[in-house]
Amino acid sequence: VSGRPIPTDVANNTIIQNACNWMSDCQDQHKKCPKRVIPLLPKRVIDVGSIEDSSPPRLHICDNNERHQYMALSYCWGGPQPVMTTMATLKTYVKELPIGFLLKTISDAIKVTRMLKIRFLWMDALCILQDSTEDKMKEISTIGDIYKHATVTIAAANASKVTEGFLSIREPAESYKIPFYITPQTMGTVFLAARVSSYWPRDPLFTRGWALQELLLSPRILIYDKLQLLWICQTDQFKPVVANHISYTSSSKRLTASVFGIKLHGNLNIRKNQLETWKGLMLEYSSRELTMLEDRLPAIAGIAKELEQVWGDMYCAGLWRNCLLQHLIWRRNSSTRQQKPMAGSTREVGAPSWSWLSL
Asked: For residue 124, with 0-12 CB atoms within 10 Å meaning exposed, 13-18 middle and 19 or more buried, which class applies?
């Protein structure tokens, strides 16, 4: 049997158990993936409790050097957030989050975290003080590390707004149900569906600028797209958690395993890798959207910080010193999105005019 019908319920026990197995195999067996570790917790995380625990989720302020496995959430805000952590709500949320008012994507992320038996969850709207410029600047500067050290990142790819959630029942894939004799006395059923060899994901999350950094710096990702649940790591890319007739393709290539501290045998042509990797990132990032123009530099800064160490080079506002001549020969093509300032945004991008990030 080459595959199974795509489950329409992406939160059923079989799918969750498969996801747990993939997560365990990745940590213990994949040579290109980081091994099982207990990371330092970010400054604030959501304590989701457990499935058996009836207590509501709450915001947890971490002690120095506190270590636990945690999950991170990558999602589309889709507009102003009615439930955020601010200096006024911090004390209340440490005691209990307003579970009845949490938006669907956040509630779904808490549910998945509990089902995967992980205690803590990080997501920006609740783990960063949204009315504190100082806290936002400090926490945004560490976002790359937060996703890099998360055990698994949940990617709510199919939701364009935080109000939509990502665990809704999927539409059944088109297939044909045919009776099948297992034995002369036993009748079974097979489903016939046309094999899709190069499905290109076009979910809302893959159009957002911040999400590129979040997904590339995450060692393991559970992607909830409009069809099913997918797995990504340094070894496997866009693999359905339940094998089926759809194979995926994507323009986003994973970063070198060196970013995650993995040393692979063989000679790596660092300069060639640098040119090819950054060209791909420029094309992918410039095709995505940002609500705030001033986020053009911060939304890719985490990737640049990691690659500075791998390449031993200096990052210069979207370009690299050792490849400066090659990178300066950029031009705007038809697929590059023309960024328009949104309400509350400024025209100050912070990048010099000779950088592609100034567009």
From this structure: buried
* Two tokens, residue 46: 């959501």
Whether residue 234 has pLDDT greater than 80: yes
Query: Can you read off the two tokens belonging to residue 264?
Result: 């692979």
Confidence (pLDDT) at 4: 76
The predicted pLDDT at position 242 comes to 87
Beta-carbon neighbour count of residue 197 at 10 Å? Answer: 10
Q: Using alpha carbons only, how large is the chain's radius of gyration in Å?
A: 21
Would you call 351 exposed, middle or buried from its count of C-beta atoms within 10 A (0-12, 13-18, 19+)? middle
What whole-number distance in Å separates Cα of residue 167 and Cα of residue 79?
20
Q: What is the mean pLDDT of the chain?
A: 89
* Angular region, 49: left φ>0, alpha ψ -120 to 50, beta rest: left
In contact, 256 and 308? CB cutoff 8 Å: no
Q: Which two tokens stand for residue 163?
A: 């109000």
Q: How confident is the model at residue 342 (pLDDT cuts 50, 70, 90)?
A: very low
Enter the tokens of residue 54.
């009836």
Residue 348's pLDDT is what? 62
Q: Is residue 59 within a helix (H) or strand (E), and if so which, with residue range?
A: strand 58-61
Q: What is the dihedral of CA 317, 320, 321, 325, to 10 degrees?
A: -100
Tokens matching residue 201? 């994901």
Determine the Cα–Cα distance for residues 120 and 100; give it in Å rounded to an integer: 19
Pick 349 or 10 by higher pLDDT. Answer: 10
- The CA distance from 116 to 24, in Å, is 11
In one-letter notation, the amino acid at residue 335 is S
What is the DSSP code (8-state) at residue 173? P
DSSP letter for 22, please.
H
Q: What is residue 346's predicted lDDT score, i.e. its pLDDT?
A: 44
* Residue ranges of E strands in 220-313: 220-224, 229-233, 239-240, 246-248
Task: Using the predicted structure, report yes or no on whether residue 306 has a pLDDT greater than 90.
Answer: yes
Position of tokens 């969750």? Answer: 16
Q: Burial code of 278-310, b = ≥16 C-beta within 10 A, e = fewer?
A: beebbbbbbbbebbbbebbbbbbbbbbbbbeeb
Specify the residue for token string 């990132």: 281
Q: What tokens appear for 119 in the block?
A: 């205690």
How far is C-alpha 245 from the geometric centre of its chain's CA atoms? 24
> What is the structure's pLDDT at 2?
61
